[in-house]
Amino acid sequence: MISKFLELVRRCSGNLVALTGAGISADSGIPTFRGKDGLWNKYRPEELATPQAFAKNPRLVWEWYAWRMEKVFSARPNPAHLALAIMERKGLLKAVITQNVDNLHERAGSRNVIHLHGRIDEMRCLGCDRIVRVAKPPKAIPPVCECGEMMRPNVVWFGEALPERELELAMSLCEENSVLVIGTSAVVYPAAYLPHHAKRNGNMVIEINPDVTPVTDIADLSVRERAGKFFEPLLPILEEEGFP
Ligand SMILES: [Zn+2]
């Protein structure tokens, strides 16, 4: 599987992007969105991650996000994040398109990261639209902007549209490049459409996922493995001087 994977990556000769989802960050210990343990068990994400929930009880929603921020900030990138950063540095990968709101790609060293669902390490002002990036959860909850208005997490909530610029960029990248789909079940549209878009435009699709997904059928290579586990032995190969 490793040699086949490397062969396909070489064949892309740099015309490759990654599409990542919850599975890649689960290997860093970040609970998936629908995680079943803990404090917040009695709430469903659909009850907290909506504009309506925030309007009704901003304090509750912010407490949940502060808790999730804490999880993200204490997690560390795993070999899959690191491998993508090395591949970008070596000119083998153009960009990472992610459905994740964590910052593990950036912390692994990836530079060109497109966040389709926003970033949990950013807050956005409801009044002046100012975006503030943070390294720890806000102390005062809910946080207030310099302009006096309340800040909200800069993430896409249920019922909200994806950021237009990011989505357009992702679409055009998948038109011109092969796609490495990692840890996403690819069932949530419009992100689910991206691998198909790549395929229809004559590009390759490579999948790394422990489960069969709707992408598996169209994949040129589909590896049934957890992302972190698959990429671990690849790190020294990718790092090797002279590779590819
Ligand atoms: Zn403001």
What distinguishing features does this structure have?
Rossmann fold; SIR2/SIRT2 'Small Domain'; 2 domains; 3-stranded antiparallel beta sheet; 11 helices; 9 strands; elongated; binds zinc ion
Write structural notes for this entry.
This protein has 244 residues and is an alpha/beta fold. The protein folds into two domains: 1-30 and 77-117 and 162-243, Rossmann fold; 37-74 and 120-155, SIR2/SIRT2 'Small Domain' (2-Layer Sandwich), CATH 3.30.1600. Helices cover 37% and strands 16% of the residues. The protein is built from eleven helices and nine strands. The strands form two sheets. Strands 3-2-1-7-8-9 form a six-stranded parallel β-sheet, sandwiched between helices. Helix 8 runs parallel beside helix 9 (193-200). The structure holds zinc ion. Zinc ion (ZN) is lined by residues 125, 127-128, 130, 145, 147, 149.
